[in-house]
Amino acid sequence: MDIRDLWAEALAGVLARPVRSALTTLGTVLGITTLVITLGVAATAGNQIVGRFDELTATAITVEVPARPGGGPLVGWDSSAEVRRLRGVTSVSALAQTEESSNLRVTANDLVDPTRVTGQTLAVVAGDPELPRAARGRMVEGRFFDAGHVRRGDRVVVLGDQAARMLGVTRLTGAPAVFIEDRAYTVIGVLGGLGREQVLSTAVIVPPTTGAGLGLRNVTRVLVNTSLGAADLIARQAPVALSPNHHDELQVISPPTPKRARDGVQDDVNGLFLILGLVSLVVGAVGIANVTLVTVMERVSEIGLRRSLGAARRHIAAQFLLESTLIGMTGGVIGAGAGLVSVVAVSAAQRWTPVLDARLALAAPVAGALVGLLAGLYPALRAARMEPADALR
Amino acid sequence: MPDVMPDVIVLDAVSRVFPTDPPVRALRDVGLRIRRGDYVAIVGPSGSGKSTLLNTLGLLDRPTSGSYLLNGIETTALGDGARTRLRGREIGFVYQSFHLLPHRTVAENVMLAEVYGGHPRRHRRRRALEALELVGMSHRVDFPPGRLSGGERQRVAIARALMGEPALLLCDEPTGNLDSGNTEAVLDLFDGLHARGLTLLVITHEDEVSARAGRRVRISDGVLTEE
Ligand SMILES: Nc1ncnc2c1ncn2[C@@H]1O[C@H](COP(=O)(O)OP(=O)(O)OP(=O)(O)O)[C@@H](O)[C@H]1O
Ligand SMILES: [Mg+2]
């Protein structure tokens, strides 16, 4: 039997009852659609979450510098320049914050409204001019202090946006001042929109040279930002750059590797829906098997006729197998289409970038065909086993 | 034997017992010889074993005992596959109920006869149209069988049976579903085929049909007698 004849006969068999064939595909369509949506949305969402990880934490490194009783500083204020030189570092800033400096009394020079409580207990932090970039913030008002302020030891401060609100400093016109432990400092800017190091939003930031008078002599922490993928390497190199002789005393806090984050997300989302999709596929297979069996019983005389025309048992089996496989494959194709459209729709609604795996689009029809093939095994066997004389009766 | 060409059918002591309870002896020690170009009618009451005989001759059923030579080939010793190939090559069937596939056109139904058994695909449609011309159905080539009259359907079925140029045409009550006019047309067609040298074996219980055959064989209770 020519393979093209087999195709033509099977196709004609499927198309002879188009409505029945269409309904028979439904279970497979449902199962494949569920599987494609599950895998597609999980991949898309997983990629999305990893994308956020990338932006926020996967490139952020913090180096904690412990205090060294009696000894000199482990990390000098100018050591961050060494880190900045490393390949893959986008910004670095050193800052100092001690326990004593964390609870200082800060008041605004609000003489106009004495009824307002303007005194606050705030943290005072010393930082270098790179701090806004390294903390991924922006200046809400005014400007940050520069190298000139640092060199001269100017008595200037920048307020975190929360701190500014608490102190009632809303405008910088008229050069407002704040009092730290009763000494006046000029407010030159307000820092907000912090992407990391949120504590700064409730802090008063002073230049390192100014901070020395407040007990903020030594660097306690270095913020490092890297380009994507460089975090692992920089986490190893930064301590050496900061303190070549005592790098093992520094504590590095680096992000988890992005790969693990992705795996974790997908594992969580997939399990249940995968089972649901597989169950639908089994139901679909049972449906195809059932309908194919009914079809075989309806076509007994056709089977007898084909046998009388010289069809061997294997020809009969092959035709019914191919018919059920075609039905399953059609279900797979429709399911893949519906699933991919759904993934795109869900992604659009969530403003995600859909991640469409080409292998998924190809595997779905194959899976459908396989379901049809398995479902057709028993009916095809029944058809092939019929005795021609009985079938023609 | 002096003949170069063997006889088409040689049955010797063929029995067919259906293993029911009690067993049915549908054929008892049947002997039959049909020569090339014979036109034989098999008559007999209902349940006498006519269809069983035809199924045996058509290799659709195996005798319980005895010997059956088709074109000189001993068929009872053949396996399933060889019997199927022989059947497809040597025998054409015509049934009372036509057995046309309802969802295929007349031409496709006729072409079905060449789907199995290694016939070339080339010119298949042309050969089908020739067979349809032979039975006078050229004007309904692309009709679905459902729109044909009973006589037309049977002519299409005969065209299908003639497609593979069989040595033998086996017909089980070919006019059983037809009125006298259509019966006449089908019998005329058989006469024509007989005249062209085809070997014909027709089961019938109508005298009108059996009268046209050159030879009449009666079967009753599985026992065959020549008339
Ligand atoms: N598969 C079977 N199992 C058991 N008995 C059978 C089987 N097929 C036929 N028979 C019996 O064998 C006998 C002959 O049957 P057969 O079909 O050959 O009759 P027939 O001459 O063709 O009758 P009719 O003219 O009604 O078609 C009947 O008694 C029938 O009941
Ligand atoms: Mg009968």
Automatic annotation (TrEMBL), chain A:
InterPro entries registered for this protein in UniProt: ABC3_permease_C, MacB_PCD, Macrolide_Exporter_MacB
Keywords from the UniProt entry: Cell membrane, Membrane, Transmembrane, Transmembrane helix
Source superkingdom: Bacteria
ABC3 transporter permease C-terminal domain span: 275-388
Residue ranges annotated for the MacB-like periplasmic core domain, each copy included: 21-225
Homology family: Belongs to the ABC-4 integral membrane protein family.
UniProt name for this protein: ABC transporter permease
Organism of derivation: Streptosporangium pseudovulgare
TrEMBL record, chain B:
PROSITE patterns to which the protein is assigned, alphabetical: ABC_TRANSPORTER_1, ABC_TRANSPORTER_2
The ABC transporter domain, residue ranges: 9-227
Gene3D superfamilies with a match to the protein in the record: P-loop containing nucleotide triphosphate hydrolases
InterPro entries, per database record: AAA+_ATPase, ABC_transporter-like_ATP-bd, ABC_transporter-like_CS, ABC_transpr_LolD-like, MacB-like_ATP-bd, P-loop_NTPase
Pfam family for this entry, one: ABC_tran
Domain of life: Bacteria
Entry keyword set: ATP-binding, Nucleotide-binding, Transport
Protein name as catalogued: ABC transporter ATP-binding protein
Native species: Streptosporangium pseudovulgare
